[in-house]
């Protein structure tokens, strides 16, 4: 009986150790990374929390100071025209696309 108990404990410890090592490896190389944070909004229920710089699934995600996904800040200037893109997850880019690869950023670069 002692032999079975020792064998069981060794297998249990190896299983726990292996799962911890595997979990650490997968999180480091294939993990989701930092999540995009949201906050409460009286108007829409929730909105993206402003001023975030994240790395998620290998993509760089920048949220500016007004909560828009953009590398640049939204500053009011009467002499400067702005283009605002509305849309769903395709426009937002999800967590797969870096800010530099968003079609809205590429369009703005091409217009400049």
What does this structure look like?
With 112 residues, the chain is α+β, with helices and mostly antiparallel strands. It is 38% helix and 16% strand. It contains 3 helices and 4 strands, in the order H-E-E-E-E-H-H. The mean pLDDT is 86.
Q: TL;DR?
A:
With 112 residues, the protein is an alpha+beta fold. The chain has helices at 2-30, 89-92, 103-111; strands spanning 38-41, 45-48, 52-56, 59-63.
Which secondary structure elements does this structure contain, and how are they paired or packed?
Layout lengths: L1 H29 L7 E4 L3 E4 L3 E5 L2 E5 L25 H4 L10 H9 L1
Antiparallel strand pairs: 1-2, 3-4
Number of helical stretches of at least 4 residues = 3
Give the termini distance in whole angstroms.
78 Å
> How can the largest sheet be summarized?
2 strands, antiparallel
Q: Which regions are unreliable across 5 or more consecutive residues at pLDDT < 50?
A: none
